[in-house]
Amino acid sequence: MKISVNAQIHLAEFQPSDQAACVEHLKEKEIYDRTLRIPYPYMEADFQEWLKIVEKTTQQQGQPVHWAIKDEEDCLIGGCGFDGFQVGKAHRAEIGYWLAKPYWGRGIMTAVVRRACDFGFAELGLVKIMAHVFADNAASAAVLHKCGFQREGYLRKHYLKDGIYLDARLFALVKE
Protein backbone atom coordinates (compact mmCIF):
# COMPACT_ATOMS: atom_id res chain seq x y z
CA MET A 1 0.00 0.00 0.00
CA LYS A 2 1.33 3.40 -1.01
CA ILE A 3 -0.35 6.71 -0.11
CA SER A 4 0.73 9.74 -2.11
CA VAL A 5 1.25 12.90 -0.04
CA ASN A 6 2.69 15.11 -2.80
CA ALA A 7 5.13 14.83 -5.71
CA GLN A 8 8.08 14.30 -3.34
CA ILE A 9 6.60 12.40 -0.39
CA HIS A 10 4.56 9.24 0.06
CA LEU A 11 3.57 6.86 2.84
CA ALA A 12 4.41 3.18 2.52
CA GLU A 13 4.46 0.11 4.69
CA PHE A 14 7.59 -0.31 6.80
CA GLN A 15 10.03 -2.83 5.30
CA PRO A 16 13.05 -4.66 6.75
CA SER A 17 15.12 -2.65 4.25
CA ASP A 18 14.15 0.55 6.16
CA GLN A 19 16.22 -0.54 9.17
CA ALA A 20 19.50 1.24 8.38
CA ALA A 21 17.82 4.58 7.62
CA CYS A 22 15.57 4.34 10.66
CA VAL A 23 18.46 3.56 13.01
CA GLU A 24 20.53 6.38 11.51
CA HIS A 25 17.76 8.99 11.76
CA LEU A 26 16.71 8.00 15.27
CA LYS A 27 20.24 8.49 16.62
CA GLU A 28 19.18 12.14 16.98
CA LYS A 29 18.48 12.81 20.65
CA GLU A 30 16.16 15.69 19.67
CA ILE A 31 13.73 13.19 18.14
CA TYR A 32 13.82 11.09 21.31
CA ASP A 33 13.24 14.23 23.40
CA ARG A 34 10.07 15.07 21.43
CA THR A 35 8.52 11.60 21.35
CA LEU A 36 7.21 9.19 23.96
CA ARG A 37 7.80 5.67 22.66
CA ILE A 38 11.00 5.90 20.58
CA PRO A 39 13.93 4.54 22.61
CA TYR A 40 17.36 6.16 22.87
CA PRO A 41 19.85 5.21 21.79
CA TYR A 42 17.91 3.58 18.96
CA MET A 43 19.40 0.25 17.89
CA GLU A 44 18.77 -2.37 15.20
CA ALA A 45 16.96 -4.52 17.76
CA ASP A 46 14.56 -1.62 18.42
CA PHE A 47 13.71 -1.44 14.72
CA GLN A 48 13.19 -5.20 14.54
CA GLU A 49 10.85 -5.04 17.55
CA TRP A 50 8.99 -2.11 15.94
CA LEU A 51 8.61 -4.05 12.69
CA LYS A 52 7.03 -6.96 14.63
CA ILE A 53 4.57 -4.54 16.27
CA VAL A 54 3.70 -3.00 12.89
CA GLU A 55 3.16 -6.42 11.29
CA LYS A 56 0.98 -7.60 14.17
CA THR A 57 -1.05 -4.38 14.15
CA THR A 58 -1.51 -4.56 10.36
CA GLN A 59 -2.79 -8.12 10.72
CA GLN A 60 -5.15 -7.20 13.59
CA GLN A 61 -6.49 -4.11 11.79
CA GLY A 62 -6.77 -5.80 8.39
CA GLN A 63 -4.71 -3.01 6.80
CA PRO A 64 -1.71 -0.84 7.61
CA VAL A 65 -2.19 1.95 10.16
CA HIS A 66 1.54 2.75 10.60
CA TRP A 67 3.56 4.06 7.69
CA ALA A 68 7.09 4.91 6.73
CA ILE A 69 7.41 8.43 5.35
CA LYS A 70 9.45 8.14 2.15
CA ASP A 71 10.99 10.64 -0.24
CA GLU A 72 10.93 10.55 -4.05
CA GLU A 73 13.84 8.05 -4.03
CA ASP A 74 11.82 5.74 -1.70
CA CYS A 75 14.18 6.43 1.23
CA LEU A 76 12.73 6.42 4.73
CA ILE A 77 12.72 9.91 6.29
CA GLY A 78 10.18 9.44 9.10
CA GLY A 79 7.14 7.62 10.34
CA CYS A 80 3.52 8.21 11.25
CA GLY A 81 0.52 6.20 12.25
CA PHE A 82 -2.60 5.71 14.32
CA ASP A 83 -2.91 4.02 17.71
CA GLY A 84 -5.57 3.30 20.29
CA PHE A 85 -8.40 2.09 18.06
CA GLN A 86 -9.80 -0.85 16.12
CA VAL A 87 -10.71 -0.37 12.46
CA GLY A 88 -14.47 -0.59 12.02
CA LYS A 89 -15.19 -0.47 15.75
CA ALA A 90 -13.75 2.78 17.13
CA HIS A 91 -14.54 6.29 15.99
CA ARG A 92 -11.36 7.91 17.32
CA ALA A 93 -7.63 7.30 17.24
CA GLU A 94 -4.40 8.98 18.22
CA ILE A 95 -1.91 10.06 15.57
CA GLY A 96 1.81 9.97 16.19
CA TYR A 97 4.71 10.95 13.96
CA TRP A 98 8.41 11.72 13.68
CA LEU A 99 10.59 13.16 10.94
CA ALA A 100 14.34 12.91 10.36
CA LYS A 101 16.07 16.10 11.47
CA PRO A 102 17.49 17.07 8.03
CA TYR A 103 13.88 17.39 6.80
CA TRP A 104 12.58 19.64 9.59
CA GLY A 105 11.15 23.03 8.69
CA ARG A 106 10.13 22.18 5.12
CA GLY A 107 6.39 21.63 5.61
CA ILE A 108 6.76 17.88 5.08
CA MET A 109 5.18 16.84 8.36
CA THR A 110 2.25 19.21 7.89
CA ALA A 111 1.55 17.62 4.50
CA VAL A 112 1.95 14.11 5.94
CA VAL A 113 -0.35 14.71 8.92
CA ARG A 114 -2.97 16.34 6.68
CA ARG A 115 -2.89 13.36 4.26
CA ALA A 116 -2.87 10.76 7.07
CA CYS A 117 -5.90 12.42 8.67
CA ASP A 118 -7.75 12.50 5.34
CA PHE A 119 -7.00 8.77 5.03
CA GLY A 120 -8.13 8.14 8.62
CA PHE A 121 -11.46 9.85 8.04
CA ALA A 122 -12.13 8.39 4.58
CA GLU A 123 -10.67 4.89 4.84
CA LEU A 124 -10.62 4.02 8.53
CA GLY A 125 -13.99 5.49 9.44
CA LEU A 126 -12.58 7.82 12.07
CA VAL A 127 -14.56 10.82 13.31
CA LYS A 128 -11.97 12.20 15.75
CA ILE A 129 -8.17 12.16 15.57
CA MET A 130 -6.21 13.17 18.66
CA ALA A 131 -2.58 14.03 19.29
CA HIS A 132 -0.66 14.46 22.53
CA VAL A 133 2.26 16.88 22.31
CA PHE A 134 4.82 17.58 25.03
CA ALA A 135 4.19 21.11 26.30
CA ASP A 136 7.55 22.41 25.03
CA ASN A 137 7.22 20.97 21.50
CA ALA A 138 6.15 24.11 19.64
CA ALA A 139 6.99 22.66 16.21
CA SER A 140 4.60 19.72 16.60
CA ALA A 141 1.87 22.00 17.94
CA ALA A 142 2.35 24.23 14.87
CA VAL A 143 1.98 21.23 12.54
CA LEU A 144 -1.29 20.31 14.20
CA HIS A 145 -2.64 23.88 14.08
CA LYS A 146 -1.83 24.08 10.35
CA CYS A 147 -3.78 20.85 9.84
CA GLY A 148 -6.87 22.23 11.58
CA PHE A 149 -6.43 20.57 14.99
CA GLN A 150 -7.76 22.46 17.99
CA ARG A 151 -6.30 22.37 21.47
CA GLU A 152 -8.66 20.49 23.76
CA GLY A 153 -6.70 20.50 26.96
CA TYR A 154 -3.52 20.88 28.95
CA LEU A 155 -2.50 17.73 30.80
CA ARG A 156 -0.26 18.42 33.78
CA LYS A 157 2.37 15.80 34.65
CA HIS A 158 0.69 13.50 32.13
CA TYR A 159 3.80 11.53 31.12
CA LEU A 160 6.76 10.16 33.03
CA LYS A 161 9.92 10.06 30.92
CA ASP A 162 13.46 9.61 32.18
CA GLY A 163 12.25 10.15 35.74
CA ILE A 164 10.69 13.53 34.89
CA TYR A 165 6.98 14.30 34.82
CA LEU A 166 6.06 16.08 31.59
CA ASP A 167 3.07 18.22 30.77
CA ALA A 168 1.28 17.64 27.47
CA ARG A 169 -1.16 19.47 25.27
CA LEU A 170 -4.07 17.51 23.82
CA PHE A 171 -5.14 18.42 20.28
CA ALA A 172 -7.97 17.00 18.20
CA LEU A 173 -9.35 17.18 14.69
CA VAL A 174 -13.02 16.30 14.28
CA LYS A 175 -14.67 15.29 11.03
CA GLU A 176 -17.62 17.58 10.52
SSE layout and pairing:
Layout: E1 2-4, E2 10-12, H1 19-25, H2 29-34, H3 44-61, E3 66-70, E4 76-83, E5 92-99, H4 108-123, E6 128-134, H5 138-146, E7 150-161, E8 164-174
What does this protein structure show overall?
The protein is of the alpha+beta class and 176 residues long. 32% of the residues lie in helices and 32% in strands. It has 5 helices and 8 strands. The protein has helices spanning 19-25, 29-34, 44-61, 108-123, 138-146, and strands spanning 2-4, 10-12, 66-70, 76-83, 92-99, 128-134, 150-161, 164-174. The chain has an 8-stranded mixed β-sheet, sandwiched between helices. β5, α4 and β6 (128-134) form a beta-alpha-beta unit. α1 (19-25) packs across α3. It is globular and about 40 Å long.
Summed up:
The protein has 5 helices and 8 strands. With 176 residues, the chain is an alpha+beta fold.
Biggest sheet, strands in spatial order? 1-2-3-4-5-6-8-7
What is the end-to-end distance? Answer: 27 Å
Helix/strand structural class: alpha+beta
Tally of separate helices: 5
How much strand content do the residues show? 25-35%
